[in-house]
Structure prediction request, 283 residues.
Amino acid sequence: MRRGNQAFCASREFWLRFLMPLTRYARIWLAQIRYSTVRELMFKSNFLLWIIVDLAWFGLSLAFIQFLYLQVNTIAGWGKWEMILLVATNNLVQQIFQTFLMINCTNLPELVRSGKLDFFLAQPASPQFLVSTRKFEPGSVVSCVVAIIVCIVAIVHLPTPLSWLGLALYPALVMLGVLIHYALMLMLMSLSFWMTRASGFINAYYSVFQVARLPREAFFGWTRIVFTWAVPLLLIANVPAHTLFAGVQWGDLAGLLAMTAILCTLSRMVFQAGLRRYGSASS
Prediction:
């Protein structure tokens, strides 16, 4: 009887401490997604235009690869369909990030400048969660689906056997890439707590972001070290794509996990430090 009571108390404590807060945050996020979707669909022309623009850029990237491989057989050891898989994986990571997180990160400087961040600080929930998830881009969902279709077509045409373990790990690796983008962007935008023009980093990040769609083998020396371990853009799409046709490289997997954990921790520390400065500046 005593053991039964202990088990019941343990399960109740687990529910109250972990599952109930998780459920509450999930309900908040779903409510914000519904609100954002309704708001976006009120402006159907803008909604459709952004879908067309995103798909056009992706199509141009694929056309450029097709043109390149008319001249050569491999680039840095990557064949045509392997390169298409890499670019499609990078686009998938980018579109997931854009769908759920990017618009919120880039809006942080405006919240700080206008003082609207006070509204989120007054809510009974994590300010970082509310700031990071309050908007949703439904148009990017279409681009995500197209990227997944292109990935499937590329996998079918791969000249090497598919790694089934790599396929099982692929969704998790893609999500780790999304978290790396989120952590890097949140750190950059959190600089708005200390400087007034932090939004200018957005264009710079877009430019550097293009590195993620290139094969890691095309880089040498300090550039490869920087873009692998300092700003790990070369891990974001390279590791998931390479895992599908070359099998799981446990060193790359450990590196991706480690960099994701480190950057997410650093981004939270920078954001929290910014909040403390913001609180002292507005008091």
